[in-house]
Write a structure and sequence with these properties.
The complex is a heterodimer of chains A (269) and B (267). In chain A, a hairpin with a 2-residue loop joins strand 1 and strand 2 (58-59). In chain A, helix 1 (3-18) packs across helix 6 (104-136), helix 3 (60-77) crosses helix 10 and helix 6 (104-136) packs antiparallel against helix 7. Helices cover 73% and strands 1% of the residues of chain A. By secondary structure, chain A is mainly α. Chain A contains eleven helices and two strands. The longest helix of chain B is centred in the first third of the chain and has 35 residues, at 63-97. The chains are: A mainly alpha (269), B mainly alpha (267). Chain A binds chain B through residues 21, 23-25, 27-28, 30-32, 34-35, 37-38, 41-42, 44-46, 49-50, 55-56, 177, 180-181, 183-184, 187-188, 191, 196-197, 201-202, and chain B through 28-29, 32-33, 35-36, 39-40, 42-43, 46-47, 49-50, 53-58, 181, 183-185, 187-188, 191-192, 194-195, 198, 202-204, 207. Chain B: Keywords: Membrane, Transmembrane, Transmembrane helix.
Chain lengths: 269, 267
Amino acid sequence: MNRRRLYSAIFSMGVQHSMEYRLHFFLGLLGAMFPILVQYFIWTAVYRHSGQAALFSYSYGQIILYTILAGLVSKLIATQFEQQIADDIKNGGLNKYLIKPVSYFGYRLVSFFGQKAIYYGITALLLGGIIWFASARGALELQAIRLILFAITLWGALLLNFLIAYCICASAFYLHEISYFFVITSLLVNILSGGMFPLEIFGESVVKALQFTPFPYTIYFPVNVLSGKTEVAAMYQGLLIQWGWILLFIGLSRLTWQVSMKKYSAVGG
Amino acid sequence: MFRTMRKYARLYGIFIKNCLIAQMEFRGNFMMSLLVESVYLVAKLLYVLVVFRTDLHVDGIPPEGLLLFIGMHTVVTGFYVGLFFTNFMKIPEYVKDGSLDLMLTKPVSLQFMASLRYVDLALPIPDILVGLVMIGIGWHAMEIPLTFLHIAGFALLLLVSMVITYCLMIIPALLSFRFVQTGAVSEIAHSVWDANNFPMAIYPTWVRRIGTFVIPLFLITNFGPLFLLGQLSWLYAGLALAGSLLLFVAIRLLWQRAVRGYSSASS
């Protein structure tokens, strides 16, 4: 089987896997709406009481738009494969990938994109509706270049988040019970990426410090590209930095897995 | 009646002791549970950060007063994750793999065994500690007198909150008697749960009505602090108690109905 056919089969398996429990899938989407609604009511109360036009440099419209977009993007880029990789390492499931002419990294990456494909399509539809509504209400100034860059940075965010999670998964070679560790890291990464609140709530110095980490480039940056908060020059600069982080994490993931693989003892499988 | 209650109290004590022994056997996991819940707590504290950084007032209640509500939510979350969460997550597994069969044969209430067997002693520690500190700060800042009546009323409403929490959060587990995958319903229930960490006054009237009379979620976090702030009379506290007991009876009937439809899957 040539590589193209192999990976398109893996991609197709990922798509099928995501649609295995369709009701579960759509209820998951519905579940993502509740935190957004809660934050909508909180921010509405905050702005109503403060009487100020902008808080943390966001107008009311911008913060609501940020809340909705960040909620959708964080759901879109969520990985959820960490436990499967940890099980493969712990129970010997990794063996079959080591002896077959397929890269484990390639398998996981293409399968991840396959699992996200339908979600990406649905999110695109939802985003279309939100963008149209926000621009009709004057909360968003629609610019073609921002839409294009948002689509590019969103794919970049998906890839970067995958790579961060894949690097973290290498710790399963060293730790016996790791499910807790994944819960902690995914929640912390989400907070530092701006998935819960805009990073500005932590203060200016924290925002500046976080710019030197990959986290803002997974949620905070793509959302602000679309919402218009990021200046035009900063958009291109941010895009370059995002892809710089992606390249760095590709190297880092290869390195961590090569080093960690030496610890692997292929038990079971 | 008294003898039965004593028997169940003794049995519950044995469950707690058994869970403590099991958890102490794997102390690393105990510490990790503490750490996981602490990180969730940090995420919740971000809301406190927003409240104080924006000087949010809700219905005239200043940020310090809002700590009473967020603290109450945190304390009840602690009790929920400690006493109920593990059990409610296990019920769908019991139904799926047929391990409920063995429980059916035991000379105690099936609902008691399935929904209260496990107690996690690590998860609630950060929530209850930090929640009580927040309540303490709010209590002091709002100059609420520390009298027996205030403490008794608050304790009663905390008990009401726990009964309502049990009744509402067991519903996704009850659905597992009918559906295979109930994970997403649990996820929605937890998202709705998080909607409760602010006073219900931030929500529009129709949401408040649903959250009070249809799914009495807002009673969990709001009634205790409102009582302390003098915005809830003893009459309403009594009504909340009666309402929670009625809800418990309804859940008991629902449980019995769900079990009647149970067909052993395996074993």
